Each structure stands twice: as structure tokens, then as C-alpha cells.
């Protein structure tokens, strides 16, 4: 028996990417960063995400 991995729809891929971005932004804000004025600070939210 061969197991097949189902195709992931475009909608699910977009929603996953948006979820990662928003959790990174939330984590950056919680750590005191300013991701809206300095987009590079979004990486501060990695531990939260």
C-alpha cells in the first residue's frame, strides 16, 4: 500500500503564511519591538512564534 500526500490548496498555503507573519508581529510587539516602523524587528518575535 502506497501512502499519498494530498495536495495542499493555495488558500491553505496563504493562510499559513499569514499566520506565521501575524504571530511574528505579535511576538515582536510583546518583546518591545516596533515591527510597524522598523520591519527588521519582526525577527524579535521568533521565540513567540
What would you say this structure looks like, in words?
The structure is a single chain. With 49 residues, the protein is mainly α. It has one helix and no strands. It has one helix spanning 10-30. The N and C termini lie far apart (37 Å). The mean pLDDT is 91.
Task: Describe the secondary-structure layout.
Layout lengths: L9 H21 L19
What is this entry, summarized?
This protein is 43% helix and 0% strand. The protein is built from 1 helix and no strands.
List its traits.
49 residues; mainly alpha; 1 helix; 43% helix; elongated
Note the run of SSEs as H and E.
H
**Helix percentage range:** 40-55%
Specify the structural class.
Answer: mainly alpha
Strand-residue proportion: under 5%
Radius of gyration: 15 Å
- Alpha plus pi helix count: 1
Number of strands: 0
The main sheet comes to: none
List low-pLDDT spans: none
Distance between the termini: 37 Å
Q: What number is the mean pLDDT?
A: 91
| Form type | elongated
Amino acid at each position: 500500500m502506497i501512502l499519498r500526500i494530498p495536495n495542499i490548496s493555495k488558500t491553505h498555503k496563504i493562510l499559513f503564511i499569514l499566520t506565521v507573519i501575524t504571530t511574528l508581529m505579535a511576538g515582536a510587539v510583546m518583546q518591545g519591538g516596533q515591527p510597524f516602523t522598523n520591519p527588521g524587528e519582526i525577527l524579535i518575535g521568533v521565540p513567540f512564534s
